[in-house]
Write a structure and sequence with these properties.
One of its GO terms (molecular function) is acyl-CoA dehydrogenase activity. Keywords: FAD, Flavoprotein, Oxidoreductase. Belongs to the acyl-CoA dehydrogenase family. The protein is of the alpha+beta class. It folds into three domains: 114 residues, Orthogonal Bundle (Butyryl-Coa Dehydrogenase, subunit A, domain 1), CATH 1.10.540.10; 107 residues, Butyryl-CoA Dehydrogenase, subunit A, domain 2, CATH 2.40.110; 150 residues, Up-down Bundle (Butyryl-CoA Dehydrogenase, subunit A, domain 3), CATH 1.20.140.10. Helices cover 52% and strands 15% of the residues. It is built from eleven helices and ten strands. The longest helix is centred in the middle third of the chain and has 37 residues. Bound molecules: flavin-adenine dinucleotide (FAD). The site of flavin-adenine dinucleotide has 23 residues, from strand 1, strand 3 and helix 11. Flavin-adenine dinucleotide (FAD) binds next to strand 1, strand 3 and helix 11.
Length: 383
């Protein structure tokens, strides 16, 4: 067992950290306040090869491994979690499932522009009546002479206003309810319409929208096997959750950095507050929980990279890291006192951004169900 990052991993971590420090962190509060999607950041990330960091070189990616991608997400999210989720959805919820389930022709057409960052990806599963219960979607696909007619609405789709390529899920098999009978399709931006931009608690530099579609697609837009789309969605989320764990670790680390800096400079009762053991105890707990979360995330990433089962490891990593992020961003506000509660300090943004990591790509309750099922087998499955 080797807990050291390789020199290649450290190199990409440093690249992402330096980019985030100069191109993201100084502007993150402004983007949050103005609810602005910083499109220019993604062009610069593309120049660095980071929009396709774990995509093989033959498809115009950087050819790095999944842990490298996780390291990049952690560093970007440390500066701005909205930038982090934009890259996470683009990569692990759009580019990677195309690579995993696409035909040779689909991969050749869609993956290189995504990996070069010339196109942005999105993943559209959730609907008004189907979130955790994703098998309840009612968007539907009807077979036509040339392919499919797809119609439906989707809710809370990250990157929706800016994406070029969408993976969209629709029910295609009649008489089959629940998770069976769903298929995955590849749609272009011209085939979906944005009906509403969501106003969120945090993550304000990311785009989250409702979509509607009512369009004909050729048969070659079916991704994976007909009626097996739920499997595409679940495999996608298995990997995606590791990325959300990395996002949570990045946010929590930013909160710890801010709390440590403040503990050294803020004085009360004639001392730096960092001299009080109550503050030291908080910082020590924060650092320990964040490190534990980081190790769970890196372990899950390595299992995925080596083609080993990673459903439970990914669920554990996301569950723990997201709860650490929520808890420890709150503790960071406590260390900063009244200042931490104001918009002058970044920790209130970290606190707002952290919360969503307990919700999307499967809530904490759903992660616990995934983990419990692995412990209890059939007993843990819904009846
Ligand atoms: C900012 C943001 C971005 C998002 N981006 C995307 C995206 O790009 N693409 C996409 O498809 N979706 C996206 N989503 C949707 C997200 O994945 C869902 O919000 C999430 O899966 C939860 O679904 P829900 O909100 O409908 O909650 P619900 O399913 O209604 O759950 C409500 C509560 O009930 C609990 N619950 C539900 N079922 C069970 C159960 N069986 N046992 C115990 N508790 C249960 C949940 O844990 C939760 O606490 C996004 C959401 C947000 C907020």
């Amino acid at each position: 067992m080797d807990f050291e990052l390789t020199s290649e991993h450290r190199e990409i971590q440093t690249l992402a950290r330096e980019f985030a420090a100069s191109e993201i962190a100084p502007f993150a509060s402004e983007w949050d306040r103005d609810r602005r999607f910083p499109a220019e950041v993604f062009s610069k990330l593309a120049d660095l090869g980071l929009m396709g960091v774990c995509v093989p070189e033959e498809f115009d990616g950087a050819g790095c491994d999944f842990l490298s991608y996780v390291l990049v997400l952690e560093e970007l999210s440390r500066a701005d979690a909205g930038v982090g989720v934009t890259l996470a959805v683009h990569t692990s919820a759009c580019t990677l499932p195309l690579l995993m389930f696409g035909t040779t022709a689909q991969i050749a057409q869609y993956v290189p522009p995504l990996a070069r960052g010339e196109a942005l990806g999105a993943f559209a599963l959730t609907e008004a009546g189907a979130g955790s219960d994703a098998g309840a979607i009612v968007s539907h696909g009807t077979e036509s002479a040339t392919g499919w007619h797809l119609a439906g609405t989707k809710q809370w789709i990250t990157n929706g206003s800016f994406a070029d390529t969408f993976i969209v899920f629709a029910r295609t098999e009649t008489g089959v309810e629940g998770p069976r009978g769903i298929s995955a399709f590849i749609l272009d931006a011209s085939q979906v319409a944005v009906t509403r931009e969501e106003h969120k608690l945090g993550l304000n530099s990311s785009s989250t929208v409702d979509l509607v579609f009512d369009t004909d697609v050729l048969a070659d837009r079916l991704l994976g096997e007909r009626g097996r789309g739920f499997g595409v969605a679940m495999a996608t989320l298995d990997g995606g959750r590791i990325g959300i764990g990395a996002q949570a670790v990045g946010i929590a680390q930013a909160a710890l950095d801010a709390a440590c800096a403040y503990a050294k400079e803020r004085r009360a009762f004639g001392k730096a507050i960092g001299e009080f053991q109550a503050i030291q105890q908080k910082l020590a707990t924060m650092a320990t929980e964040i490190e534990a979360a980081r190790l769970l995330v890196y372990r899950a990433a390595m299992l995925k990279e080596h083609g080993k089962p990673h459903t439970v490891a990914g669920a554990q990593a996301k569950l723990f890291a997201s709860e650490v992020a929520r808890r420890q961003t709150s503790e960071a506000i406590q260390v900063l006192g009244g200042y931490g509660y104001t918009k002058e300090a970044p920790v209130e943004r970290y606190f707002r951004d952290a919360k969503v990591t307990e919700i999307y790509e499967g809530t904490s309750e759903i992660q616990r169900l995934v983990i419990a099922r692995s412990l209890l087998g059939e007993l843990g499955r819904p009846s």
